[in-house]
Design goal:
single chain; six-stranded antiparallel β-sheet; 209 residues; TATA-Binding Protein; 6 strands; alpha+beta; 4 helices
């Protein structure tokens, strides 16, 4: 003879169980749906317009990164990549990768939009236990822990820097090197007329007393 057992819950406990289930489901959805925060709006933190040509703007961006201690990995007329190392703690290492793209807005090259993205990679110092192999004629090679350890940096986090003020400071210093903030304008390297030629140099030498 079989018996059927039923587990009865009070209305309060049943409501609590439903609430906890919804909370767990909501947390899992929030963690996995990072793309929900992508707005794709026309007011972007990662871009800025400059009234200069693309080569001149990228050259100013290169000087901006160099002035702050960044190491330039590559620099082209429309592209600049750089990186910088930080050591905020004795066992923590941080590296910022800077990627700059200069896109001309017109055929005359008088306006450029700069797109910037900076990635922050975080590394932690991890200790690894090492074992040595001991060769025996009877047993062959046996791995035995000797107790030695070695330190190595392991990447523990990586994210694109979202801070608007971080990029605003970069754009502001780029404007300085372009001479758009009222300071002395730099040489526009894509303007051949602004650069002295060998012929003009010889002529000036010949006419000088």
């Amino acid at each position: 003879m079989s018996r059927m057992f039923r587990l009865s819950l009070s209305p309060a406990l049943a409501l609590l169980a439903v609430s906890l289930t919804g909370l767990v489901a909501g947390c899992s959805t929030t963690k996995s749906a990072v793309y929900q925060g992508e707005q794709f709006s026309d007011t972007s933190t990662f871009s800025h317009d400059f009234a200069r040509s693309a080569p001149a703007t990228c050259e100013a961006a290169r000087r901006t990164l160099l002035s702050q201690g960044y190491i330039i990995k590559q620099a082209k007329a429309d592209l600049v990549d750089g990186h910088k190392h930080f050591q905020p703690e004795s066992d923590i290492h941080v590296e910022i990768e800077f990627h700059v793209v200069c896109a001309a807005n017109d055929k005359q090259g008088k306006s450029t939009t700069v797109f910037v993205s900076a990635t922050q990679d975080r590394y932690a110092l991890k200790k690894t236990n090492n074992s040595a192999s001991l060769g025996l004629s009877v047993l062959g090679s046996v791995s035995m822990p000797i107790g030695s350890t070695s330190d190595s940096l392991v990447k523990v986090a990586s994210e694109t820097i979202p801070a608007g003020q971080f990029y605003d400071r970069f754009f502001g210093l780029t404007e300085h090197y372009l001479g758009l903030d009222g300071s002395a304008a730099v040489v526009d390297f894509d303007d051949e007329a602004a650069l002295p030629t060998k012929a003009s140099a010889k002529t000036s030498d010949a006419t000088s007393p």
